[in-house]
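Repro:
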Amino acid sequence: QVQLVESGGGLVQAGGSLSLSCGASGGTFSNFALGWLRQAPGKEREFVAAITRSGAYANYANSVKSRFTISRDNAKNTLYLQMNSLKPEDTAVYYCAARSTPGYSLYGSTNDYNNWGQGTQVTVSS
């Protein structure tokens, strides 16, 4: 198990940028594949981006590809999400999530993760 705490959410205008962070404690951070997921009002939680244990590989939902960048710093036990060219449809609560794995897989489904943060609100105004 690992405890996750997101930060960095807020209100931004369309076209702007925002950077999210997720600090981890209670586990060996580098043993976990990580991801960002989000949930908009009235919608199901959806995958945004994922990154392998080492940070060497990442994948993205089509809706955010080329605008968002996921990264991690295993020395600082921190996951990041850089969000550029934000759109009103990016408005959601953003969650970081973790899954302990012996391998180097990427996980693109909400059901893949068993450790979750409390979420941080991102609101993009038009």
